[in-house]
């Protein structure tokens, strides 16, 4: 019996029936709603916000959070499969869901008060309240401890001053989860759209994540009550804990991008005839396609095991770093090779490889660059911090 070219080790057989149903439903959504429009959205630099209500109705926002807050209560593997299928459509769609779920809803659930959970999470699960995550700063990049944004206590309020950069969903957002230095260390605040002194400016001229909203956030003496502070965490462990949640999903997402590019190249190489035979009949093309299949298979197994560890409560941040490093590198290499197999046709958004390759330039950078994750693993295996 012939093997599935995109699942050579039958990883799907390792999934539960519920996990397979979730993957299939998101795959149908991607095929029917995302793929027909996403090339044009990328060309136009437009996030397809008309898809948000259906994304929400499917339970994809905050999918791993408890049902009591209006969420789906799914396991970690299911969330990973959601990310994989959405990114098979486009990294911008997966990024929207990742930010809403892991970087905005998660900190409210994990670090917020019960009042904050009840106030925000149900509306966020319904897609009625959109969030963004304000950590990265213009000068900071991979060094969040060097944060310049400050929040100072003034009576029963906090006054925030500073700026954040490269913020997904910034101009879409109704709330921002903002991390700032205080006298008691880094703390998180929920800042609502329209608060005096808070502005979001969209970043233009992007060549990556064009079907996603990217913004800069500015805080000029923004006053928020103490009830908007996340009370249950202080220090970098707060934002880093959120990033671990989001990075986990990112280990799955690039698998979807790689599968899209690989499938496109596989089909095209069978159809295109050069020198009286299909491109797929040449040894060089077969070696490239086999290498793509090998690397996708390894990434699938890596993320599945990571998901099982997460569901068991034993996942370590360094394991997430290894998977993010491996799978992003795998995907960007495959997209570039797929573009090459498509020849000149590969440079247009009529085919997915170049779009995914450009998007992955951001994915391999955000939430920890490849170099940072390499150094995390270096520290883990040597016990020496080289940062």
Automatic annotation (TrEMBL):
Entry's family note: Belongs to the acyl-CoA dehydrogenase family.
InterPro entries: Acyl-CoA_DH_CS (IPR006089), Acyl-CoA_Oxase/DH_mid-dom (IPR006091), Acyl-CoA_Oxase/DH_mid-dom_sf (IPR046373), AcylCo_DH-like_C (IPR036250), AcylCo_DH/oxidase_C (IPR009075), AcylCoA_DH/ox_N (IPR013786), AcylCoA_DH/ox_N_sf (IPR037069), AcylCoA_DH/oxidase_NM_dom_sf (IPR009100)
Domain Acyl-CoA oxidase/dehydrogenase middle: 132-222
Name listed for the protein in its UniProt record: glutaryl-CoA dehydrogenase (ETF)
Alphabetized GO MF terms: fatty-acyl-CoA binding; flavin adenine dinucleotide binding; glutaryl-CoA dehydrogenase activity
Reactions listed under catalytic activity: glutaryl-CoA + oxidized [electron-transfer flavoprotein] + 2 H(+) = (2E)-butenoyl-CoA + reduced [electron-transfer flavoprotein] + CO2
PANTHER family, per database record: GLUTARYL-COA DEHYDROGENASE, MITOCHONDRIAL
Keywords attached to this entry: FAD, Flavoprotein, Oxidoreductase, Transit peptide
């Amino acid at each position: 019996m012939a093997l599935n070219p995109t699942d050579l080790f039958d990883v799907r057989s390792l999934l539960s029936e519920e996990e397979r149903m979730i993957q299939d439903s998101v795959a149908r959504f991607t095929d029917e709603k995302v793929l027909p429009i996403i090339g044009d959205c990328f060309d136009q630099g437009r996030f397809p916000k008309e898809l948000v209500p259906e994304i929400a109705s499917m339970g994809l926002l905050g999918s791993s959070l408890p049902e009591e807050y209006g969420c789906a209560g799914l396991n970690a593997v299911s969330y990973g499969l959601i990310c994989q299928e959405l990114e098979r459509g486009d990294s911008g769609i997966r990024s929207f869901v990742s930010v809403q779920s892991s970087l905005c809803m998660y900190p409210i659930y994990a670090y917020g008060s019960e009042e904050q959970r009840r106030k925000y999470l149900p509306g966020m699960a319904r897609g009625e309240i959109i969030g963004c995550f304000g950590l990265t700063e213009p000068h900071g990049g991979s060094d969040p401890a060097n944060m310049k944004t400050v929040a100072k206590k003034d009576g029963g309020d906090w006054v925030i001053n500073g700026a954040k950069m490269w913020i997904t969903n910034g101009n879409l957002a109704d709330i921002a989860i903002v991390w700032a230095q205080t006298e008691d260390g880094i703390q998180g605040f929920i800042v609502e759209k329209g608060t005096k002194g808070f502005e979001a400016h969209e970043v233009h001229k992007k060549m990556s994540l064009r079907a996603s909203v990217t913004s800069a956030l500015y805080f000029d003496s923004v006053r928020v009550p103490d009830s908007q502070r996340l009370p249950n965490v202080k220090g970098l462990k707060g934002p880093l804990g959120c990033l671990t949640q989001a990075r986990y999903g990112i280990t799955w997402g690039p698998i979807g991008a790689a599968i899209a590019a690989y499938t496109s190249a596989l089909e095209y190489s069978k159809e295109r005839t050069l020198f009286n035979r299909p491109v797929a009949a040449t040894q060089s093309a077969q070696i490239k396609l086999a290498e793509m299949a090998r690397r996708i298979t390894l990434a699938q197994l890596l993320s599945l095991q990571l998901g099982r560890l997460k569901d068991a409560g034993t996942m370590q941040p360094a394991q997430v770093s290894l998977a993010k490093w491996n799978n992003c590198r795998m995907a960007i290499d495959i997209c570039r090779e797929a573009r090459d197999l498509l020849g000149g046709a590969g440079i247009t958004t009529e085919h997915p490889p170049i779009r995914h390759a450009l998007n992955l330039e951001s994915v391999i950078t955000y939430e920890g660059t490849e170099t940072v994750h390499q150094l995390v693993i270096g520290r883990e295996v040597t016990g020496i911090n080289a940062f």
